[in-house]
Amino acid sequence: MIKSCTDRKKSKYLEERIEEIERYHKNKEVRNFYQGTKKLKAGYQTRTIDLETDSEGRIVDNYNINRAWKDYFRKLLNGEEDSKKGQTQAHMQERNEDEEEMSHRTWKNYDQL
């Protein structure tokens, strides 16, 4: 039952894609025609999910990705900071203060006009 339903949806999708590609060919939309045929030939491509971490490098398997996210959120909720993150936050605070000072100067100059 489920297989026949998915087969019907897949065949309907393929028919629509083929009609779209034929329309590109008839309208002489060469670029779209070749892109459409390329995508149709390639079929379904699985995506590899990976995560870049500071300590472990690149992680590809789901178990370690989930563990890394779990550790990250645990540190975030417990208020633990990385040294880089602390530096970034301090830099952002300085930047906000500079922007605030700049806006006050701008308004002062505007009032003098």
Please tell me the total number of domains. 2
The secondary-structure element order is: HHEEHH
Question: Helix fraction?
Answer: over 70%
Give the averaged pLDDT, no decimals: 77
C-alpha end-to-end distance: 77 Å
How many strand segments? Answer: 2
How would you sum up the global shape? Answer: elongated
Put simply, the count of helices is: 4
Q: Strand order of the main beta sheet, please?
A: 1-2
Strand-residue proportion: 5-15%
Runs in which pLDDT lies below 50 for 5 or more consecutive residues are none
Radius of gyration: 27 Å
Based on helices, strands and strand pairing, what is the structural class? mainly alpha
Main beta sheet: strand number and arrangement?
Answer: 2 strands, antiparallel
How does this model look, in words?
This protein is mostly helical and 113 residues long. The chain has four helices and two strands, in the order ααββαα. The relative contact order is 0.05. The protein has a two-stranded antiparallel sheet. α1 (2-26) runs antiparallel to α2 (30-42). The chain has two domains: 2-42; 51-112, no CATH class. 75% of the residues lie in helices and 5% in strands.
Strand and helix map with partners:
Elements: H1 2-26, H2 30-42, E1 51-53, E2 57-59, H3 62-78, H4 83-112
Antiparallel strand pairs: 1-2
Helix pairs in contact: 1-2
Region (Disordered): 80-113
Summarize it.
The protein has 113 residues and is mainly alpha-helical. It contains 4 helices and 2 strands, in the order ααββαα.
Main features:
mainly alpha; 4 helices
